Amino acid sequence: MNFQFTMSHDGVFARSKSHSASLEAIDGIPERREKRKRQSSQEHQPSALTICTTGITVRKPTRLYRMPRHEVFWLEDGNTILQVSGILFRVHRSWLVRHSGFFANIFKDEDKHIGYDTVTGEDEDEKIYHLTKLEEKDLEALLLFYDNPVACRGDIRFPTLVSLIRATTILGFEADRLWAVKLLTDDWSSNLGGLHAGSELRSNAAQVAALSRAYGINDILKPAFYEMARTSGFGLGDVDEFSQSEQISRSDERRLIRMREQLSGIWVQAAAREQPSLACPNRVDINIPDEKPVISSPALGPKRCLPMAARCEAWVRLVHDSGIYDRYRHDPLCGLSALMLISWQDEGWCKDCHHKRRRVWSTMREKTWEQIDEWMGIGQ
């Protein structure tokens, strides 16, 4: 279907058809891209000259080449051509300048400054800006976002959000970048309260960590790395393919291995057996001369803890046989929360020991959460 485009009130573009791109269009990008057959441009044949902005290489291909136009974002009244992943987009320069500090700088003095990630090629009429750090889906997501921002802001899927963060960061759409980053940080809160007994494993942790490292989104590195540490294979098997500029570095891989060892050690210390440091002075196996028996009530729980042998047996049943110990082997933050939920008073521990354990385990959670910054080199 052919679309005619006119300038919208936002100065971007609007199709003359009554419907514009919706969330289905945005989230269906991968499926559409696989099905469509790209048609090569018969009219636009960029020429030989390309300029590498590093200032190192200037190459002149010996023959002309053809590139397909994007099926939606080749605007008939556009005046600026962008090339991404071998696909040509034609958009309005005024829109780029209005929203992108990156393009505003490029167009301000084109002869002297091209930009750190662009390559240009000229033919008789137009100049092509080759965006080497973006993929087609990233620019497409950004353009679709501007085509129907209301629908996008209402509901957005993870792959589209990643593309928007990548495109807005690289191309300097700062206001939109702040919005997209906030959406991601709200979803990956660094609040310890979000990790509790029963918290399910989250997908995309490895991609979130790589994206955050690449673009300096430090606030969500901690929850993303912890999620990787508690996931089998560090969650790397959930990622089909990392972007070329977004990878889990070898340094972070080594840090993750060391952090998992630390987390496992903390869990063994807390859950393998009852900690001797939490010994109760009110145990019934401690002889106190001339003391009268203390009567307990079901409401208050026992005044004294059970003998050591009975408590060890109860610990094995409550922690090991229940599956808690194995389930949280690499996840002490959620595991400690599970221990805190056990009604120790009903199992033969006195009220004082019940509350003392809860305080100790709560402190262990907080200290462990703080140490992750150091273990993973966050903020250094």
Structure description:
The chain has about 375 residues and is an alpha+beta fold. The chain is built from 15 helices and 9 strands. The longest helix is centred in the last third of the chain and has 25 residues, at about 350-375. The protein is elongated, with a radius of gyration of 30 Å. Residues about 1-25, about 35-65 and about 285-300 have low confidence and may be disordered.
Give a nutshell description of this structure.
The protein is α+β, with helices and mostly antiparallel strands and 380 residues long. It has helices spanning 23-27, 29-35, 93-99, 101-108, 136-147, 149-154, 158-171, 174-187, 205-215, 221-229, 250-271, 308-320, 324-327, 332-341, 351-375, and strands spanning 5-6, 14-15, 50-52, 58-59, 69-74, 80-84, 87-91, 118-122, 127-131.
Let me know the number of strands: 9
Widest sheet: strand order? 4-3-8-9-6-7-5
Overall mean confidence score, pLDDT:
77
| Number of continuous helical runs | 15
List the SSEs and their pairings.
Layout lengths: L4 E2 L7 E2 L7 H5 L1 H7 L14 E3 L5 E2 L9 E6 L5 E5 L2 E5 L1 H7 L1 H8 L9 E5 L4 E5 L4 H12 L1 H6 L3 H14 L2 H14 L17 H11 L5 H9 L20 H22 L36 H13 L3 H4 L4 H10 L9 H25 L5
Parallel strand pairs: 5-7, 6-9
Antiparallel strand pairs: 1-2, 3-4, 3-8, 6-7, 8-9
Helix pairs in contact: 3-4, 5-7, 7-8, 9-10, 11-14, 11-15, 14-15
